[in-house]
Amino acid sequence: xxxxxxxxxxxxxxxxxxxxxxxxxxxxxxxxxxxxxxxxxxxxxxxxxxxxxxxxxxxxxxxxxxxxxxxxxxxxxxxxxxxxxxxxxxxxxxxxxxxxxxxxxxxxxxxxxxxxxxxxxxxxxxxxxxxxxxxxxxxxxxxxxxxxxxxxxxxxxxxxxxxxxxxxxxxxxxxxxxxxxxxxxxxxxxxxxxxxxxxxxxxxxxxxxxxxxxxxxxxxxxxxxxxxxxxxxxxxxxxxxxxxxxxxxxxxxxxxxxxxxxxxxxxxxxxxxxxxxxxxxxxxxxxxxxxxxxxxxxxxxxxxxxxxxxxxxxxxxxxxxxxxxxxxxxxxxxxxxxxxxxxxxxxxxxxxxxxxxxxxxxxxxxxxxxxxxxxxxxxxxxxxxxxxxxxxxxxxxxxxxxxxxxxxxxxxxxxxxxxxxxxxxxxxxxxxxxxxx
Amino acid sequence: xxxxxxxxxxxxxxxxxxxxxxxxxxxxxxxxxxxxxxxxxxxxxxxxxxxxxxxxxxxxxxxxxxxxxxxxxxxxxxxxxxxxxxxxxxxxxxxxxxxxxxxxxxxxxxxxxxxxxxxxxxxxxxxxxxxxxxxxxxxxxxxxxxxxxxxxxxxxxxxxxxxxxxxxxxxxxxxxxxxxxxxxxxxxxxxxxxxxxxxxxxxxxxxxxxxxxxxxxxxxxxxxxxxxxxxxxxxxxxxxxxxxxxxxxxxxxxxxxxxxxxxxxxxxxxxxxxxxxxxxxxxxxxxxxxxxxxxxxxxxxxxxxxxxxxxxxxxxxxxxxxxxxxxxxxxxxxxxxxxxxxxxxxxxxxxxxxxxxxxxxxxxxxxxxxxxxxxxxxxxxxxxxxxxxxxxxxxxxxxxxxxxxxxxxxxxxxxxxxxxxxxxxxxxxxxxxxxxxxxxxxxxxxxxxxxxxxxxxxxxxxxxxxxxxxxxxxxxxxxxxxxxxxxxxxxxxxxxxxxxxxxxxxxxxxxxxxxxxxxxxxxxxxxxxxxxxxxxxxxxxxxxxxxxxxxxxxxxxxxxxxxxxxxxxxxxxxxxxxxxxxxxxxxxxxxxxxxxxxxxxxxxxxxxxxxxxxxxxxxxxxxxxxxxxxxxxxxxxxxxxxxxxxxxxxxxxx
Lengths: 437, 654
Fold this sequence. Notes:
The complex is a heterodimer. By secondary structure, chain A is α+β, with helices and mostly antiparallel strands. Helices cover 23% and strands 22% of the residues of chain A. Chain A has helices at residues 112-120, 136-142, 185-200, 215-222, 228-242, 286-301, 367-386, 408-413, 430-434, and strands at 5-8, 18-24, 31-32, 37-42, 47-51, 56-60, 67-69, 73-78, 94-96, 102-105, 109-110, 133-134, 203-210, 248-251, 254-257, 263-265, 277-278, 315-319, 338-344, 354-361, 418-421, 426-429. Chain B is α/β, with parallel strands linked by helices. In chain B, 40% of the residues lie in helices and 17% in strands. Chain B has a 7-stranded mixed β-sheet with strand order 2-3-1-4-5-9-8, with helices on both faces. In chain B, strands 10-19-20-22-21-24-25 form a 7-stranded mixed β-sheet, sandwiched between helices. In chain B, helix 18 links the parallel strand 21 (532-535) and strand 22. In chain B, helix 18 crosses helix 22 (640-653). Classes of the chains: A alpha+beta, B alpha/beta. The A-B interface holds A 89-93, 96-98, 100, 106, 108-109, 111-114, 129, 131-133, 135-136, 154-158, 160-161, 252 and B 317-322, 504, 508-511, 526-531, 552-553, 556, 558, 581-584, 651-654.
């Protein structure tokens, strides 16, 4: 019988140091024939297909979504018919009765995460060994998402999730006079928040160019005083319901999805950078959002923002378009997984060019999903600008789409209709619903 | 062993004089040997004081016992005449009465037991006397102390108890006027005999310059004690003609010379030259032959106090019947023992019914076993000292120290007495004394009633330290202890555990098992391979179990608890077995970390696993006294949160 063969990422085909496993085409433990497609991996340039070098049983050593160094083993092909080794379990725990006899075996015990995952994969809790202790990896293993545990392996060592939050000593250039000035406490707090956010996430970003022609005049009509940023916050909040991975947090192999969309938005009027929070942004109208942002600005100027104004942010929007910045990569804040940056090109004010950059945590998402988020956002912002005629009724009239602000007349032209909506309270159009509401 | 030699039957005055010359000759030879470099350490001679021991020995019977002190040669020779045995002992030879292990100050033979610490022997003698009373055998006990001992508090604890309990103990105070170099005029207030009389003890007063009168006085005092009930106190004025031990004599020459002139042996040689000279010559010859014999004998042989060889641990599932609280299981074990073994005796503060002890462990026992469960004064040193004496005399005493903190008051009895006797006396006696005490905090009792100070009692060869917990039946620990006890045993009962239910049901998914030892190590494990070992004992187990649950539930970490019930000597292999599996160990203790249990275990595991990449940490009390303020107290002691925190940090970042 042939020996097991290890499958690794061939060096010659990629320039990267590592690749991402996009998708396994066969479950672990499944039989494959020679040259069968078993896996898609993503390089910086393209998707590469990996084929079985021989017939046998696939045993994963890496999971879909994993970054794998080039040359590293991603799976093994065991000789056909040889089952992957089951982890050797000690005798199952049983409830001991007082006379020493053994009664019915105790059911397996799950961690909350393992129980949730088992539900997700449709695994029967009782299909796990009686008395066993079931954790995330045990469920993933059972679901074929992880290779079987190797008996006698070294105890798992987990990588630290964050570095020492203390900044390393920064040495000045020698021989040059230097004057030290202590930073204001606000600045050090800000640095700590951003540092932690950065330390906990694997930040990446994508940028899209948005051309919402005629948006600003339209905004003036729609909600006087509301800026592009208010509209962007308004639309981003709704999109976050569709893309919950950006309204989330990554922690040791888990995604925590926030149950609320609370967008923080960055203000810096020279008094320092702050990011007050608009609570439950996705349930507020653009007028309400604009009003809250106005209150935040006034509070910022009069230094009357309270700690509660900064609490609970799950996503951040930062707008440097007013400063003539076109492109920048904002930093993800602690406890969040993404941040949206808005830039513009001052030279082309007439055309209203927006640069939208989404920085996201690559541990729980990837560029494609971020791209989808941005293209949805662009489409919605451009839709606002493209509304040719003004609403026949005032913006406060219930009979217009709360998402795209088209009134029923405009929608008629587009062969769309208004639908009654609970949240947000009012109406949304079938275009916006179809767009992934 | 310790049975006294038959009392002399021939002419009493001649016998006394010959014994006195024997003692004198023996000790003068010791001084000579010392100056020749043939003795170890030091010697304390009683030259000039010989008749004190002789006057007592005249009246003792076979079952009576003398307890003595650092200056014990005269008492031993007066009682036994065993020059060969004592000379070999002082010279550190295997042929000595204690195999050469005890030396000059520590002898145990022929009905004489001596120890080198001032005062501490008094409650031990009281305990032995109590055993004679309980046995109703008419035996009495004599304890020799010096005037320097009057400075020791434990003496007064003992005087109080022996009078209150009317014990057959005669205390003989040899007043030579000096505590080493310090005259008693500098250190003694009031009157010596009045001190004893204040406790209601009859006082007697004699001196060694009138040997016949002293012998008669001792006769009266001993008859009083033997006929009973109650103790006696005899003050014997005397004078030490030589230095306290060596080269520390700065008394005025004129004073010393005066006492040489009135010394009974000097006068006997002058008065009746021929006979006295012959007695002296006989004594010198006997001593010379003893020295020659001793010089030919091998030096003392020293075996470890704890031979300890055990193969790899065998684990058995723990099954505990019923569902009782820890306090009740201890109570039931004591009650069973009191019923089955009449040698059992419980003493301590406030332990009699209806109160039944500060933590109610002995509730009702005094009513069930009248006279064998006794309240004591607040005298921790005397409680343990009496326990020592009872145990040496063959009883099975259980001493309760109300709070573990107060063990400090009994430390001398544990460290310098109980722990030493068996080995130091060449294994001729055992001290099967049990000292039970509640340790630990989390009850808001403050700095002096909440500590865990057991670490100060670890590492005393010849003793054992046990710690109860609720995942192995405390009654079984006590039953086994009563069955097998052969050494002083300290049992730590954590306060916070008394109310816990004794069951084998631990956090779901985990089960309890234990090693196949007398005092087992408990392991709480699951089917999964552990990420970390949590080593704890006693009261920390409850928090460790909760942490085990949270580690799994909130952090997906599998822990394994190792909880020994025997802390000293500690069986390492169950710990090593677990830590080799997990690669990590957190040691949790409620005491101070410095030189503590965890420090010892980490060092020992490290030594036993050279080169292995083990991640090990300790967690204990914050380095300040325990505050009464309960939230602050909890903050400074290990708890569920701190255990979880450290375990997570070790697993994630280790």
